[in-house]
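Q: Fold this one first, please.
A: Sequence and structure below.
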Amino acid sequence: MTAAAVAAVSASLIYLRSFSCSATTASTATAVSATTANTATATATATTTATTATTATARHFISASKFT
């Protein structure tokens, strides 16, 4: 191989490697974003469930205290 051919192949490999790294970074960013969204949804669901349980307990206590 000539020096020019070696340089061309090296440049191509460097380009492909940088493209691969960029794709991996984008993929990771998407995964992190999805995980963050899932965590936020789970937290909101847990908060709603806890609020509903607290409200139900309070209603039961109020109802029971009316008749005692």
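Q: Good. Now the second chain.
A: Here it is, same layout.
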Amino acid sequence: MAPKLAPLAQTVSERLLAGALKACRAPAVRRAVDRFALNRTRYTKAEAVEAVVDTVAAHYAEHRIEAALAARQARVYQRVYFRQQLRRLPPDHPAAAEYRRRDAELARLDDTAAIVRYLARYYAEDMIADFDPAFFLLFRSIARRIFPHFVKSIRVVEAAEGVLDRVRDLAARAPVLLLPNHVSNADHVPLCFALNFSGIPQPRIAAGANLFRGVSTVVLPAMNAYKIRREQIGQEERWPYNVRWFQNPVYRRVHAAYLRYGWDRNEPFLFYLEGTRSRDGRIGRPKRGILGDLLEYLADTGRTAWAVPISLSYTVVPEDEEIEAARTGAEISRRDLVSQLTRLDRSYKRYGDPPIYLRFGEPVELTADSGSPDRVGEDLVARIAAGIVPPATSALARAVLAVRHGEPEAGWFWPEEAEARFRALLGPERAGEFPGALALLEGRGFVEREPDRGRYAIRNEPLLVQYANRIAHLEETG
């Protein structure tokens, strides 16, 4: 699409989606959807915002010294953020006027309770999802048509027969945490399709603020994705470091209150323990923040929750080249999610719908006595890693690196040696996947056949390393 037409097309798409969302909220549509939607936990965004603000205000009303310190710190951080945004925007930009207004309003407040309520509402309105079951059903139907090859690639595997039935039953009576490893910005799509196909309600999804761009600002909240800010707030000259959002005590308190609001209602919750996508292909260490909030919630309420390890693996990794670029310091693409998925679907069509594997592990019972957030997180990450179905491309990448010859910048391999190593990794039952995996790596430009020598040259070793790292835990079978 020509550069000048791209913004126009995006604006039209946003308007069409906004119109569809408005139509989905018509009373007649809602009544019809109530008969078919899986989600029985229903509340409006406005209801959730009010409840969260009241919870945060009540906490600080009971802890006055903490409130005074938190209000002062949060106001300073928030005004720094407003000023940082104003420096980046043209003076006549629509968002600039809003930031100036907000900064002026916050500057006028001097009462602790007023500051807490103002900021709690500002954060809650920015954060909280606006789930619409009718829009979800509509978008699911549309997605099958606009991302058909991506959707057809999904393969659901259970650790044991009946695992998904058990997850569905647990979700009706307890907080259920759905915990996949994080490979791609596209992870939400196969995960939500797999859950929906299995009769599990659409979960609330923790989504990074970087995903809320273009049409995604309409789609994601309506799909029950809430915005979680992990980026830097900004920095003042007098500060020795950049401040991040979760160092803001009021923002952190709002997030915890919103989590509890969902857990009180047994709303399934999907988040990535690693916090962000892996930059080198390996599964990362778990972040303790949300797990810490959960264990504190279980201690306060005496309830039991269930964690479901989900092992996600791609034969063709979405944005693999961008992830490698990010590892070396470049900025990852800032396209909106829908645009990324459209481009990705074309790629999957070209490569013959390469499998995306989702393996659902046995639910793990969690109570206040389960241990520290670090211990619980390490155990769950180990379960996720152990459950990964090795894609043929990752197995071949690992095999190629094991049998490579030549200098660091001029590597090559004999296909017969790579095939033998591939068989040792995946076993004889999957040996027939070798030709397809080799064709995929060649099609991606990772390797190139040298017919006059009967061997293959390695053209992109960093990408081979990334793919191999995704099954670094796998032992050879022979």
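Q: Anything worth noting on the second one?
A: Residues 45-126 form one domain.
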